[in-house]
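Team,

Forwarding the record for the chain on the shared tracking sheet. I've put the sequence and predicted structure together so nobody has to dig through attachments.
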Amino acid sequence: MADHVRIADISPLSLLYPDAGSENNSGTGGLSRDTWEQLEGDVLLDLRGCDPGDFFSDDGDVIAYRQEVFRDLTANPELCRAFSKMIPLLDDISELRRMGSDVGGSAESYLFSITEIEIYVSVISLLHDSLAAVKDSLESRALRELTRRIESITESDYYRDINEKLKELTSRVGEVRSVTVGVNLDAQLKATSAGVLSVNNEPFKSGELIDRILRLDFKSDERTCIAPLTPFDKSQSENRQLAMSTALYSALTDVFRSSVKAWRRIVKEYVLENTDFLLELLPEIELLTKGTELILSLSEKGAVMTYPQTVSKEGELVFDAKGIYNPIVTVKLGGDVVKNDFCFDKEGTLYVLTGPNRGGKSVITCAVGLAFAMTGLGLPVCADEMKISPCSGIFTHFPSGGEDTIDKGRLGEECSRLERILDAADRRSLVLLDESLSSTGSYEGAIIASEVLSGLSVIGCRTIFSTHLHDLAASVGSINEKCAPLGGARVDNLVAEVGAGGERSFRIKREAPDGKSYARDISEKYGLSFDGIVKKINERRGR
C-alpha cells in the first residue's frame, strides 16, 4: 500500500478553472438568480445542485478553458452520458454521509460506509472506462488531467486492495439473512438475559402450516420459527418495535465490531479524501453535463451555435453578433427563428429600442443577455458569428411581480430597482431594461427614463432600453448632447420592424423611429378600434 493515493498529494483539479485551487475560482457575482430567471435561463439549463451565477466569469482565459471542455463533451456524447450517470451517484454519497452522521457509530453507519465505498468504486470505474474509450481524442486540459487522475487511482495497489476488501466484506454482510437469538429464563420464565447466538445466511422459516404445505416440508429444525417475537407483530406499538430493532442493531454491531471498525478506518483514511475530490467536482460536472445536453439538443433542432471570439476585457467594449437569435424561442417553439445582426460600438453603446407590441423587442433584448450569460459560462452562443468582450455583470429591469408596491407604489418600486442598478453597474456591465417605467404616464415616464439613460451613458455601460416611450427615443439627440461633455457613451435608436399592414417581421433595424405609436394596429388586432367596436355592437343588435 505504499502508493496510497491521497488527493492531498496531488494538485487540485477543476473542470472550469485553469488555475485550480485559486482563491479567485468563483463567480464574479455578475449573474444573479433573478437576472437568470428573467432571461429564462432555467428553460435552457435545468440546474438543481448549482447556481449558474456561481460560475459566471469575465476572464477570457477561464472562458477559453471551459470552451475546450464543452468541445470535448459534444464531440464525445458518451462521456457526457457517463457524467450524467455520476450525478445521482455522487448525490447518494452526500446523503449517505448525512445519514451516517445522524446514526453515529451504529451498525447502520458502518453499512453506510460500505455503501459509500461501493458507490465510490462504481463511479471511479465508470469514469475510468468512459475516459479510456475517448482519451486519445481529448483536447481539453481539464479532461486530460481528469483522465490522468483517474488512471493514477485505478492503477494503485491500494485501490486494487480496497476492491478486494470490499468484495470480502460486502459478501459477508450481504449474506446475512437472519440471526439466532438466545434468551435465558429464570424459574418464572422471565427473561434474564439475551444475545445473538449465530449469524445465518438463510432466513428463518415461519413455521406456519400454510408455509410448510407450500414447502412440502413438515419437519421442524433450527431455522423454523415456533413463535414470533411480539414486538414485530402488527398490533404492537412502534416504540416496542423500535426497542427490538435497536437491541438487534447493537448486537450486530458487536458481532461485526472488529472487521467493521477496521473497515471504518479504511473509509476515513482513504475514501473520505478521494470521494471529497469527486464531490467538489459535482457542481462543475452538473453545469458541464446540462450545458452539453443543451448544445446537443439545439443541434438536433437544427439551431446554429458558435463559440464566441472573446476580446480582452480591457480597452474598447466589443459586441458584434451576426445572426443572433433567442434560444428560448427555439426550445419552446422549434423550427426556424428570425436572426438579427446586432452590435455595440462607439456610435451606439446604449440603445433605445422601440416598435410595436409583440414585435420582437423583448426577444432580442433577452437574446443579447443570454449571449453574454452563456459566454460567461463558457458555452457556445446562439449566433452565426460573435466577437465579444465579456461583461463584468448583467443587470435586468424587467416587468416585476410588484414586490414592495404596498409601501412604495409600483412606480416607486421600479425606481428603487433602477437605483440599485445604477449604484452597482460599471463600464463593463450589461444593462437590459424592458418596458421600465411603464407604470406611470408616458410623459412622466419619458422624463425619468431620460434621466436614467443619461446616467447609464455617463457610466458608459452597454445598454438596451426596450420601451413604448417614443418620447424617450425622440430625446436621444439631447441626451447625447448633455452627456458628451462628461465623457458619456453615445446613445442610438433601434426599431422593431413592422410592415405596412402591421405584420411583424421580428427584425431589428438601426434607425430612428417614425414616431408612430402602433396603437391603432394593436387596437384593430384586438377589435378595439372605434369602427370595430361599432361593428360588433351592430352585429349584437342584429343590424
